[in-house]
Structure formats: structure tokens, C-alpha cells
């Protein structure tokens, strides 16, 4: 079998066989197929697409290109979730403890952020002492003991994706939906859970800018999961403004704490309630979504969700006094208001600009070597649909950088005001399941 023949076949728009796809993934992972041939293959896929069968085979080959996590030693149905990323997305910090408090087993492997804010692991590490790297034995034992663990992926999981992801980034093939879907799903499947909930975001602060593109990606990933024997569902969520009010690591942890106390933002509370209900349905803890919603709401009201959050961090070495007394989190040296220059209703907020501004304040990484300032970020005081008087705060910027006036102007420019009232839609637009 020759790689050039596989490339030419895909260039002609023909479906590749299982053997051809597995030959490519095995050869590229081992280094016997060079980058220039892999680049040509990826470009052919970008233009010609792949059939559902091809995508399922590609995902399966990538999943098994390295280590897979065996969670069979964990009793019961193991649930997992994945977000395609967004601004202010602290969902796992509240959602994980809530579903675990309701009896689900969440065995989650997460990543770090590269870009506007930190990833779930970075946010967890803003609580002093928290260890996000457990051995497989420790990981499994913790989920069996308390129902939840959130840790970093091992280097051995899905090496094919690591190579292909880096290649796509420099060859203009990032936007291929078959390649996006197989990248996400191969990692999730390799992590071993029985069920997967995908939070696919759309809007100006998301990778998929339109709901139609997000729907296509979601359906592709749900089909992959179904074809490979996992209960996979997706929700389409709005990222045309930041999720919640807080953007930045410790700031987002504090907002997750507030949400578990019943004082969270409307949109964030809606998201964790809907996502939690679906995960409880997947775990067969409830028989319908309405019962699932009520169980999640009860876990907020009775404090069991917050108690489970404390249990999670304590199990992983975190100082839970910071969760119990959020005022202990260090505050940035500079807390600067961004004031409205006119009165009006907030028509839109450029999520991406808010995210990038948070990074400039120190909340994210431009490169993997950059160190995150856990106290830096932005807290919105107005969301889409809110009215603001001239001179009232739109947001506050938190930073330890003395020279940040330019960033304040960029945050102010991210808010568009209008004289007319603005209708506010839901954050969760639809659920997709086969």
C-alpha cells in the first residue's frame, strides 16, 4: 500500500477503505509517513470531505494510536463531557460536582488553555495545593470513592491527534469538520467513559461562528460516538457573549462557587442545569429531562453540589478553605472600572475581544511557556439586554500589570449599546441525539 495512492484516491473524492485509513494513521504516528504527505491528505479531506463510515474509522484508528484508559474498575456508568471552548467557560467546575452529587460517576480528563484564558486544569490550580495529575490507579480509586475526578491527560493518549492537530494548524486545514470531529472524539473515546455530552458552542466567541456550522459538527460527533458504541449527545450553546460574568481563572472559580450556592448568573445556571439533566439521563439515574433538571436544582439548593466540589478539591490536595471563603483568593493589584460613555441597552458583547483582553491582562497564555496570573481577568457588570446609564460600569478589569490603559479601551469597545431594548435568548438552543 502506498500513501500517494491514498492521497490521489481522496483527491478524486472517493471513499477510503478501513485498511487505507488505518495504514495512514499508523504510518503517520510512527513517522514512516512524512508531514508533506499527511498535509496533502488533510487538504484533500478538507475539499472532498469524508463519509460517516470513514470518519468513524479515522476516529477509531486515532483513539487506538496510543494508550486508552480502561475504566471498567469503576462501578456503574461513567459519564464525561466536552466543551468546544468559549469565553468564561467554567462549566466543569460546577457541573461535575452537581452530577456527582446526584449519583453519577464523572471520570474526566481535561486540558490546559492556550489563548484567552486558562483551561479547566488551570482554573483548578488557582486553588492552592490542587494536584491535577493522578496515576490511573489513583484516578479510578477516587472516582469509586467520591464519584468524581478531573485530571490532566497523559502524554500517551491519542498521539496521532497530537501530530495531526499540530499539522492542521500550520497547513490551513483546521476548519475541516471531519478532522475537527475525529480530533475531539478520538481523545474523548480514548478516555474510556460510557457516555459523552458535547457542549458545542457557536457565535463570535466560539470556533464555529454560526449555529448551522455548530449543528453540523455536533451531528458528526454524535454519529461517531453512536457508530463506536457510546451514548453521545450534544447541546448547541450561545457564545455571542461571555458565559456568566467572570472571565479569568480564580474569578471563574469564585463564580462557580456562587453558582453552587444558588447565586450564579442566569445563563451559566441554565447551562449547568440543562447539561446536568442530560448527563443524569445518560447515567440512567433519571428517566426524563425534567426529573434531571429538578435533581440538579435540588443539589444546588441543599448544598450537596458545593459539598461535592469541596470533596473533589480536597481529594486532589486543594486547600478547600479558599472554596469556603472565596475572599481568600488573592486580588489583583489593579481593579479598574470600564465605564459606559453613553446610556443605552447592551446590544452585543464581542466575546472574542473580551477573551483576548483577559489574556492581555495576564489571564491566559499566548504560548505554552507563558505563566498565567490566576488573579487576572474581567468581571462583566452588564450583559446583553441590560440597561446602563452613562458613567456606570460595564465591567471591571483585574490585573497586576501597571500599564493596562489600552486594554481598558479594548474592553469598552467590545460593548455595543443601543437605544432600543434588546431581546435576550436562551443559552442552550437545542439538543442533538441519534
Characterization of this structure:
The structure is a single chain. With 434 residues, the chain is of the alpha/beta class. It has three domains: 3-49, Transferase, Pyrimidine Nucleoside Phosphorylase, Chain C (Transferase, Pyrimidine Nucleoside Phosphorylase, Chain A, domain 3); 78-324, Nucleoside phosphorylase/phosphoribosyltransferase catalytic domain (Pyrimidine Nucleoside Phosphorylase, Chain A, domain 2, 3-Layer(aba) Sandwich), CATH 3.40.1030.10; 332-418, Pyrimidine nucleoside phosphorylase-like, C-terminal domain (Aldehyde Oxidoreductase, domain 3, Alpha-Beta Complex). The protein has helices at residues 3-11, 18-30, 35-48, 52-63, 91-101, 120-125, 136-146, 159-171, 177-190, 211-227, 249-260, 266-282, 289-301, 304-315, 321-324, 351-363, 405-413, and strands spanning 78-83, 105-110, 148-152, 195-202, 231-238, 246-247, 334-339, 344-349, 377-380, 387-388, 393-399, 415-418, 428-432. The strands form three sheets. It has a six-stranded mixed beta sheet, sandwiched between helices. The protein starts with a helix and ends with a strand.
